[in-house]
Amino acid sequence: MTDSSDHDRSVTLLQEFGLKEYEAKAFVALTRLPSGTAKQVSEISEIPRTRVYDAVRTLESDGLVEIQHSSPQQFRAVSVTEATNTLQQAYEERTESLREALGSLGRANRETESDTTHEVWSLSGTAGITSRTRELVESADRELVLVLGDPSLFTGPLVEGLQAADGRGVTVLVGTTTDRIRARVQDELPTAEVFVSELDWLSGVSPDDDTEIGRLLLADRSAILVSTFHPQATDRQEQAVFGRGFDNGLVTVARRLMATGLSPMEDPGSSD
Amino acid sequence: MTDSSDHDRSVTLLQEFGLKEYEAKAFVALTRLPSGTAKQVSEISEIPRTRVYDAVRTLESDGLVEIQHSSPQQFRAVSVTEATNTLQQAYEERTESLREALGSLGRANRETESDTTHEVWSLSGTAGITSRTRELVESADRELVLVLGDPSLFTGPLVEGLQAADGRGVTVLVGTTTDRIRARVQDELPTAEVFVSELDWLSGVSPDDDTEIGRLLLADRSAILVSTFHPQATDRQEQAVFGRGFDNGLVTVARRLMATGLSPMEDPGSSD
DNA sequence: GGCTCTGTTAACCCGAAGAATCACAACACG
DNA sequence: CGTGTTGTGATTCTTCGGGTTAACAGAGCC
Q: Structural domains in chain B?
């Protein structure tokens, strides 16, 4: 059972690493064999035999298989660890190159810097939202109010970020959905105030509204990030809206909504 | 000057991360802008204006850009660090999944284990060859003979591997091309014997033979790896041949060639 | 030595995905 | 109220990858 599912999963993943379908299939076929001929590979992988050679050759030049030039030729996949290491390293190098190239990119600046009062931006994807969350946590000066709708969002790096913020004097308030989670969070953040949120809004308002609030972050009462989960949609996972600026409408609303339980923050208006 | 080259490099790299051409172009365009409308993006990126929307939307769901739903819509790229982190993380997760899926793959074992006497395998790509080199170094019991044709192949991880081998009692012999490199290597491997190789074979034999030997590794006198560089070929970089087994023809030849300067190894035939 | 069969390479065909264009509705603005 | 701009959808064109077939070479057999 794990056979076929892992098989297909491997093929798909390999393709996401830039391999063509035949290359991916050939590689997993060879991974299951100590070594094999074109014929054997063709039978297992359902690649037309005459095309096994091309696929295997490009795999060889990627360092993923070895070829024995006999007749018939023998093919052999490198070990799983060797293969994944090779791939991982390739993509780390690419990330580095990309960082470099994008960084030294000439800015075509037309200063369209309008006031941020009414700007509300949307972004999607847990990865991107997490990244933005981290940025907000790291740049907070005075106060962080964070409510997690899903405990899985309470990750290690986030804890570290909150601890660091706490360490530099930021007031950290964390809301959770259940007391069980509250206890766990409180355990990891002893100096923070951790509470169980009363918010009904974690579940949808109308019956056919199955959106759930994922996270909710108010930083220095001047930046707000709210994310939701839409389970029904096949494509989109986590969606978020994001606003910045003390006078921003969304921020104002969030501030009001959260006013209950917030102690007055000294000199609220002087932040940039 | 760095403008256009880095621009194109970014686009290409982004595409290697799975983005479509329009998505890649749109992202770099937005990276050069604090924020922009479809029209602006279209002008900078040379994407037809009507297709900017699709591209940006999928970028948004990848967490790479933010959208402001006003009229006209405003688009904004996340910071370079946010973007590269997001991408890197995505590929690290994929690597992990792949390792897992490939690892738990049911082996369709037909025991085709012939003797390795005459098997000579070829593999290409510096990454794969490096990986195989490491494996050989790590699994060596008694002796390692290594000759590097190119100093750039003498990397940190390789040094560590050699030191570890040395530490567990393996005799390590390293050959270099110049005395300068010899000194450097000797410095990092005090207990190893480092020598300047006399080998003429590092440069081609015939005039039109511009292949250069990259590395040459004999492990326990029972496994050999020889790699060469072919500078003229546009596609292939480093190529290698690889043989295993004490009786392997290639290994035998290598052993003979290297016999000069090798002290007799006790009980050479008893290794499997 | 000729013949056949298998292994290997290469060329070709076709369909899907993506790039480019167009047509049109909605909206903002004067 | 009309004109230009903005956003969405449908349509054509091109490219690339998957699939098939043919040609070639070599080994073994008769």
A: 2-100 (1.10.10.10), 116-262 (3.30.870.10)
